[in-house]
Amino acid sequence: MTPPPMPRDPRLSAVGPNAEQIEYWNETSGPRWVAVQARLDAQISPFGLLAMEAARIRGGERILDVGCGTGQSTLQLAERVGARGAVLGIDVSHVMLARARERAAQGDFAQVRFTNADAQTHRFEPRAFDLVYSRFGVMFFADPRAAFSNLREALAPGGRLAFVCWQALEKNAWMRDPLDAIARHIALPPPPAPLAPGPFAFADAKRLRTLLAAAGFEHIAIEAVDRALHIAGGGPLGDAVTFLLEVGPAAAALREAGFEKRGSVAAALREVLREHLTPSGVIMDAAAWIVSAERAA
After folding, report:
1. 71 three-state secondary structure
2. N or C of the chain: less Cβ packing under 10 Å?
3. Alpha carbon separation from 234 to 23, 43, 55, 228 (Å, rounded)
4. pLDDT in tens, 59-73
5. Range of the domain at 40
6. Total structural domains within the chain
7. Which stretch of DSSP H or E encloses residue 135?
8. Does the global pTM surpass 0.70?
9. For 105-134, what is each residue's pLDDT tens digit?
């Protein structure tokens, strides 16, 4: 018997302080991330699991998964809290949430819900969660202090925060080297301002610690994790090239340069990735922060 579809809430409009991000994750990146969902999950899941370990998850807990995307992290959290627990996945992208709901409906996940909303401004039930978690989903707020303050109010007394985010671009060879390679063929867009929303918004650990403290968190721990990353989750060289043409900084640069440059960009990516090809796929260095904290009283 086909399981009933998960209930859907009203679609989020591209308004408010994060309107640009809402539009971007629905019109530009959302469909691309859905298309490469399996490869993307395989690539970044190891980092997400490290953040789950830091979160000290217990059975029966209530968890908010911020920027849950296509739902893998939400379902992993649900497995950890069990049937007595509850997990709410929140994301601005209704496109990715549609896939997340499909995945949840394929399994026994009655404790899972999803909502299409902006975690910076959404009115959560106060003190409703034991843990706020995120796998690379908290770097895109227009006002991160306001966002983390809002998330803090959603935590019960003694509630915890745990997430993973990228360190600086120069420490992430898997993004840096492809950009350097394609720069010989297309003009790269100017780098974003250091504090602008984006994958490297929290590259500065000192700034991140200050933000979290100002938002009402204490016992803040920021651990550097440097490890090998399997581009597109492993597999042949062509898969890795196709993946980087669709998501990440190189893909963003290609979109600005124009589709007619795809051939030369693909060739440049193939050349640089071939240097890192192993029997297990293309493996390059990556660097992230594993962050944990507690709600201050």
Report:
1. coil
2. N
3. 31, 8, 27, 11
4. 999 999 999 999 999
5. 19-169+193-227+285-295
6. 1
7. strand 129-135
8. yes
9. 999 999 999 999 999 999 999 999 999 999
